[in-house]
Amino acid sequence: MTDHLWLVVGLGNPGPQYAGNRHNVGHMVLDLLAARHRATFTAHRSRAAVAEARLGVLPGGAPGPRVVLAKPSTYMNTSGGPVAGLAQYFDVAPEHVLVVHDEVDIPFGDVRCKSGGGEGGHNGLRDITKALGTRDYVRVRTGVGRPPGRMDTADYVLKDFGTVERKELPFLLDDAADAVEMILTEGLLAAQGKFHTKS
C-alpha cells in the first residue's frame, strides 16, 4: 500500500470525570495504540493531544504506515474543528482520516468498520462530517450496547462501563486497536472480513 499519512482520531470528552465513560472508548483505544507503539501524546495547537507513530506491519514485513494519533481536547459534540484543523495541518485527505468512536447500535464487545454513510445520531461524527465537508472518512465503531430499560441514550454513554463490562473491556479495546491497524495495513475490506464475522 502507498505510504500515505493517516490521521487516526479517538473521540471522547476531556477531563478525568469522563475518562471511564462509554463515550470515551475512542480515547481508550488511542491510548492503547500509543502504548503499543511507544508514542507519547503532546498538546497541539489544533485543540488536540497528538502522537506520531507507525502502526502495524505491512504484508511482507515492512513497517506500517505513518500515522498521527489524535485525541481532541474539546467536548465530543465539537470534535469537528480539531479534526479538520489537524487534517489541514498535516495535509491528510478525508479518506485517510479514521475515527474511533462508541456505538450504541452495536452490542458491547463487537467492532465494526466502515467508510462513509450516516452518523447514526452520533453528535461527534455529525460535527466531524460538517467540518470536513464530507462523510467519506473511515470509522471504527466500537460497540457499547444499548441502554437498559428506558434509560436515555445520552445518560447511558456518559456513565462508566459496568462491573461485568469492565472485565471484558480490555478485549474490546484490543479488537478495536487491531481493527485500526488492519485497516491501515491490509485495507478496510480485510478488516470487515475479520471483525464483522467474529462471533
Structural features:
tRNA binding, Peptidyl-tRNA hydrolase, cytoplasm, peptidyl-tRNA hydrolase activity, tRNA-binding, globular, 20% strand, Rossmann fold, 199 residues, alpha/beta
Write up this protein.
One of its GO terms (molecular function) is tRNA binding. It is found in: Cytoplasm. The active site is at residue 23. The record marks 102 as: Stabilizes the basic form of H active site to accept a proton. The protein has one domain (6-195): Peptidyl-tRNA hydrolase (Rossmann fold). Helix content is 35%, strand content 20%. The protein has helices spanning 25-36, 80-89, 123-132, 153-157, 163-186, 188-195, and strands spanning 6-10, 42-44, 48-54, 66-72, 97-103, 111-115, 138-143. Strands 2-3-4-1-5-7-6 form a seven-stranded mixed β-sheet, with helices on both faces. A hairpin with a 3-residue loop joins strand 2 and strand 3. Helix 1 packs across helix 5 (163-186) and helix 5 (163-186) runs antiparallel to helix 6. The mean pLDDT is 94.
- In CATH, the architecture is 3-Layer(aba) Sandwich
Give the integer mean of the pLDDT values: 94
Name the CATH superfamily classification: Peptidyl-tRNA hydrolase
Number of strands: 7
Give the termini distance in whole angstroms: 29 Å
Reading off the top of the CATH hierarchy, the class is best stated as Alpha Beta
Specify the number of helices.
Answer: 6
The radius of gyration computed from the alpha-carbon positions, rounded to a whole number of angstroms, is 16 Å
Contiguous uncertain segments of 5+ residues: none
Strand content: 15-25%
